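Quick start: load a record and inspect it. Here is Pyridoxamine 5'-phosphate oxidase:
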Amino acid sequence: MTHDESHYIHDIEQLTARFGPVGEASLKKEADHIHPMYRPLIEASPFAIVATSGADGLDASPRGDPAGFVKIQDEHTLLLPERRGNNRIDSLRNLLEDPRIAMLFLIPGLGETLRVNGTARISVAPDLLQQLAMQGKQPQCVIVIHVERVYFQCARAIQRSGLWNTAPNRRDLNVPTAGMILAGLTQDGIDAEKYDRELPQRQRDTLY
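Running the structure step on this input writes:
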């Protein structure tokens, strides 16, 4: 399918004309620090998406732990533990090149999400590693985030998606398993059945 160039938006004037003015509440909900009204949302969140940018492109990746896993050091600083994973360290590589970071906090059952933008540095300070230990295991490092913008996102996207509705059975979704994906990408170089069979125990053993 092809479209005429006139069907594409090329400038801010075209864009704002299509969407109209920003509502007053949407402007007033933004803060340049962790406002007391936003603190409970961070403390209640067990899951966040972290976005970074570097020479190799953009990255958005999930982070999760028990609720409150991102610690509020002060109204301008967040501490994000970096747990063990696949060692791709895409987000960390990006932060060394470009300190800008964005986070989206989700809370199961809640429609509103919380967006945080700022800059970040990577720390291996012993006191921070110990403070953010989980099940006796320290994180690999800690992402120290300087907060610049914080605001909540309305619930429409969650409502439209039905994200917090009863989760369907994986079989009903008709989506491939991790093993099947790897087998398909490697022309069966990875044994899908073996990978999927061993994955649950491997995840339990390497969670922290």
